[in-house]
């Protein structure tokens, strides 16, 4: 058990180095990972399926390192459910260009992680797979939609896990689970889905990690290398002072909880101590609640497209019990808004992007909270609750992150603070589109100033099975 704990404490880069130097084999890493999943996943429910065989890893920067894939994209030979009962029995042989990059990097797939249905809700609990639990407090959600990936990394099941972000789905779980979550700029990486919808266009693929270097290396292997501003592998901490704008008001005009406000002020103090110039400024004034409604109309259109596609390919239409009530409610709201609903939603979003860019133009980086309060309780964002209640609760919690998806900005959650209740609260940083390297170099600087890597959740493998 000691060896399993020691390996669980290592990030992916360190595990790859052990393989490269012959101190450990890829098989030993795989078996250790499988043992950790077997021991803790029944409690956390972060992993929805495990790979039944270990392929021989390709030579690459992560050669031999086990990882988990969010069940939002396909992988040959494994289920691809999108968290929906509609696809409960679907197994695909499809591989994406994104997946090929991960294979070429030497990563070895250990299984797939839980998500909310179609990645729509900010809590990872579905009628298909049940609720995923936060390793810091089992009564709390790891948030979503990449909650399975964040919980798995926070618990030490794997050193890194794939995730994607259509409105905060990397950053919110990273904040809730005390790990590092980076969302790249739009179109920074190779394609991981077929696109074809506004919701897909808003979504960025990346990963959740414990170390900044793992995230930066992961980006270097998945980046679209045809870009003129390709960043490669960012390895050095920031070496200059930044002008940073900071605010705490949400997109809907709300204020964060006292615990989140305290975490934000702590982040400001840290930045000042590092020599950065922090200016507290008013938050951009968005159209509320129209912006929130517009974002969910976009999501509803994506779900409606899935339903229409299935209806065309089988004899009976999609049944009520095959989708969660919230998904149906989004489709119904889209239909009720009439044929010009999407153009109007796009216009609201375009105005919001213009407002955001104008407000942030003077700054190198913007600092806000990630979530409006500490991680919510399991059930607080249950998909069986009424649509309006879920929209109100989502606006309270997820009031900072969606604007970066529609604006195409890179953004990240950095685990800098823990509340008096012992719950993680991430600090949220964003920059202009294309400034991924700037954010990663800032992350290295913050990691060096306030290391978090040895801070393990109570229901993580190192905390439960480590000596003492």
Q: Considering the protein shown, what is the CATH homologous superfamily?
A: Amidase signature (AS) domain
Structural class: alpha+beta
How many discrete domains?
Answer: 1
Instruction: Return Rg in Å.
Output: 21 Å
Determine the fraction of residues in helical runs and give it as a percent range: 25-40%
Q: How do the strands of the widest beta sheet line up side by side?
A: 8-10-9-14-15-13-11-12
> Can you tell me the overall shape?
globular
Q: Which topology does CATH recognise?
A: Amidase signature (AS) enzymes
> Mean pLDDT score, rounded?
96
| CATH architectural type | Alpha-Beta Complex
CATH class: Alpha Beta
How widely separated are the two ends? 13 Å
Major sheet characteristics: 8 strands, mixed
Unreliable spans are none
Number of DSSP helical runs:
16
Strand content: 5-15%
Instruction: Let me know the number of strands.
Output: 15
In short:
The protein is α+β, with helices and mostly antiparallel strands. The chain has helices at residues 2-8, 12-20, 26-44, 97-104, 147-154, 171-177, 198-202, 212-222, 258-273, 290-313, 325-336, 341-360, 387-397, 402-407, 436-449, 461-465, and strands at residues 47-50, 66-70, 78-79, 91-92, 108-113, 125-126, 130-131, 160-165, 180-183, 204-209, 243-246, 277-280, 365-369, 411-418, 424-430. A hairpin with a 3-residue loop joins strand 6 and strand 7.
């Amino acid at each position: 058990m000691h060896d399993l704990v020691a390996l669980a404490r290592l990030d992916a880069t360190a595990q790859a180095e052990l393989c490269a130097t012959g101190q450990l084999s890829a098989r030993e890493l795989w078996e250790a990972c499988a043992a950790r999943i077997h021991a803790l996943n029944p409690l956390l429910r972060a992993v929805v399926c495990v790979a039944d065989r270990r392929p021989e890893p390709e030579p690459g920067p992560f050669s031999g390192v086990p990882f988990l894939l969010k069940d939002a994209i396909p992988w040959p030979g494994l289920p691809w459910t999108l968290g929906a009962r509609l696809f409960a029995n679907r197994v695909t042989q499809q591989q994406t260009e994104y997946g090929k990059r991960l294979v070429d990097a030497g990563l070895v797939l250990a299984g797939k992680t839980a998500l909310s249905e179609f990645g729509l809700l900010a809590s990872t609990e579905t009628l298909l797979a049940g609720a995923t639990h936060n390793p810091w407090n089992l009564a709390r959600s790891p948030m979503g939609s990449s909650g399975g990936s964040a919980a798995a990394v926070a618990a030490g099941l794997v050193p890194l896990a794939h995730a994607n972000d259509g409105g905060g789905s990397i950053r919110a779980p990273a904040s809730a689970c005390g790990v590092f979550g980076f969302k790249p700029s739009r179109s920074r990486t190779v394609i991981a889905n077929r696109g074809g919808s506004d919701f897909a266009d808003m979504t960025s693929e990346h990963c959740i990690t414990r170390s900044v270097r793992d995230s930066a290396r992961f980006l270097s292997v998945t980046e679209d290398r045809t870009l003129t501003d390709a960043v490669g592998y960012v390895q050095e901490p920031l070496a200059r002072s930044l002008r940073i704008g900071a605010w705490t008001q949400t997109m809907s005009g709300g204020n964060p909880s006292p615990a989140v406000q305290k975490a934000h002020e702590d982040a400001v103090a840290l930045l000042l101590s590092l020599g950065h110039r922090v200016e507290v400024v008013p938050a951009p004034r968005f159209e509320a609640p129209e912006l929130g409604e517009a974002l969910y109309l976009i999501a509803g259109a994506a779900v409606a497209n899935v339903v229409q596609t299935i209806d065309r390919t089988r004899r009976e239409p999609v049944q009520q019990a095959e989708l969660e009530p919230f998904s149906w409610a989004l489709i119904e709201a889209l239909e009720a808004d009439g044929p010009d609903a999407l153009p109007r939603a796009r216009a609201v979003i375009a105005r919001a992007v213009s407002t955001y860019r104008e407000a942030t133009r003077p700054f190198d980086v913007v600092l806000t909270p990630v979530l409006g309060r500490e991680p919510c309780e399991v059930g607080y964002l249950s998909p069986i609750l009424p649509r309006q209640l879920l929209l109100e609760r989502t606006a309270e919690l997820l009031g900072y992150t969606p604007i970066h998806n529609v604006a195409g900005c890179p953004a990240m959650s950095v685990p800098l603070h823990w509340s008096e209740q012992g719950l993680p609260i991430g600090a949220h940083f964003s920059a202009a589109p294309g400034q991924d390297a700037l954010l990663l170099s800032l992350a290295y600087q913050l990691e060096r100033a306030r290391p978090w890597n040895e801070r393990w959740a109570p229901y993580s493998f190192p905390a439960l099975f480590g000596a003492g």
